[in-house]
Amino acid sequence: MPHMCIPTPVKDIFSFTISMSLLCCIYKLLLSLINMFGLSMAQTCRKSYSNLFDAHRLLYLKKSGFAFPHDVSRHVMTFHKKRFVIPGHNGSAMRRLPDVLIIGAKKCGTRALLEFLRVHPSVRAAGPEVHFFDRFYHRGLSWYRSQLPPRLEGQVTVEKTPAYLVAPGVPQRVAKHLPDVRLLLVVRDPVSRALSDYAQSLSKHGGTHKKSFEDLAFVNVTTGLVNSDWGPISGGLYVRHLQRWLDYFPRTSFHIIDGEQLVHDPATELAQIYFQEFLGLRRIISDRHFYFNATKGFPCLVKRERTGRPHCLGSSKGRPHHELNEATLQTLKDFYRPFNFKFYRMVGQKFHW
Ligand code: A3P
User: Fold this and answer.
1) Is residue 103 part of a domain?
2) Where along this sequence does the record place binding of 3'-phosphoadenylyl sulfate (predicted)?
3) How far is the CA of 231 from the centre of ligand 1 (A)?
């Protein structure tokens, strides 16, 4: 039988092809192993972190065409066609003291601000007002921490207690424990704020009050002497309250939000908070997240952060106000004007009150 002679180059090509196919098989095998492992790991993590990091919320944002924010993508990994989102390598979500405090002002839109801010996947917020620095300071920092949601590295924790703006001793305490905290202050026309505050206290008294707004707002209605000690009036003296804070924090620690703008154009107002270096978060919330609810008379969320359903603030927000006659309105506006101007100068921002 003639001996079949295979030339060396052909032999080389042949063995090269075999080795390449083998390598491909090993590679594919490894890939499927990694995928299987990744899937089960993702499932486990998804379960354990479902309360901490809402994968669906991120995916919703992604599907809605957002550029995936760096600040989020740095801390998550996606597996299997982005069906699962898990925390990054060090992955441990922890309760931490706040990075951001919404310190007030009461009745200026603080709840709306919090609800809108927390749509951002990098924002974790305590739902109820914690009142640590004014009422529960004696419970200690670990109690405070326990009231806040766990967060991943790169996320920011926000707490809102509007009483912080006016409560005595709070700026000192905050400066002591949170020297680098960023402070958000929402303000609105102090006269509307006073009426809103009064409407709130009316509702707490079952819709009736022994005294009318005018009786409480003026020491003497005839002379027009305003009762600046009455909470609804003093709450709008922003310059006084902020001065106490500025004794402990530089102006750069604050971002002042126009409460009226927050109603008219929430997306733009929010952009200025995520913005710049203040929160250091990417702007991913836009007009598409809001719709105007004609019944409520306010902007509402197209999808709430947790439920993914449309969400308007509750009935305690957007109450009808007591109507003032023109003369009383003017007296109150005149009363606030000098304080307002000082406030504009103090913060370097102009409002139209
Ligand atoms: P009124 O109830 O007087 O209208 P806070 O949350 O600080 O208590 O502020 C309540 C105020 O938030 C409301 O005052 C309302 O004007 C204002 N607000 C701003 N945006 C709102 C929104 N999207 N829905 C309801 N209220 C909003």
Assistant:
1) yes
2) 107-111, 188, 196, 317-321
3) 18
Q: 67, 85, 103: which is the final residue of a domain?
A: 85
- Whether pTM > 0.70 for this model: the answer is yes
Q: Which residue has the higher pLDDT, 215 or 52?
A: 215
Task: Name the residue at shortest CA distance from atom 3 of ligand 1.
Answer: 196
Average pLDDT over residues 102-115: 97
Our mutation pick for probing the ligand 1 site, out of 111, 201, 302, 311, counting the most ligand atoms within 8 A of Cβ, is 111
Pairing between β-strand 150-151 and β-strand 298-301 as defined by DSSP bridges = unpaired
Q: Which of 258, 199, 197, 238 is nearest to 338 (CA)?
A: 238
In this predicted structure, what is the pLDDT of residue 54? 45
Tell me the three state secondary structure of residue 327.
helix
Q: Which atom of ligand 1 is nearest to the CA of 162?
A: 7
Strand extents, DSSP E, the chain: 76-79, 84-87, 94-95, 100-104, 123-125, 150-151, 156-160, 182-187, 218-220, 225-226, 254-258, 290-293, 298-301
Give the domain CATH number at 173.
3.40.50.300
Asked if 75 and 100 sit in the same domain, the reply is no
**Is residue 110's pLDDT more than 60?**
yes
The pLDDT tens digits for 216-248 are 999 988 888 999 999 999 999 999 999 999 999
How many distinct structural domains can be found in the chain? Answer: 2
Rounded distance from Cα 277 to ligand 1 centre (Å): 27
Locus of tokens 């509307």:
192
> For residues 207 and 343, which has the higher predicted lDDT (pLDDT)?
343
- Distance CA(127)–CA(110), nearest Å, equals 12
Strand partners, 85: 78
Is there a single domain that holds both residue 188 and residue 323? yes
> Cα(137)–Cα(80) distance, rounded to whole angstroms?
46
- The catalytic site residues sit at 107
Q: Is the CB of 317 under 6 A from ligand 1?
A: yes
Q: Which atom of ligand 1 is nearest to the CA of 312?
A: 24
Model confidence at 126, pLDDT cuts 50, 70, 90, reads: very high
pLDDT at residue number 53:
41
Range of the domain at 79: 8-85
353 within a domain of the structure (yes/no): no
HSE at residue 292, side-chain half, CA atoms within 13 A, is: 6
> Which residue lies with its CA nearest to atom 12 of ligand 1?
109
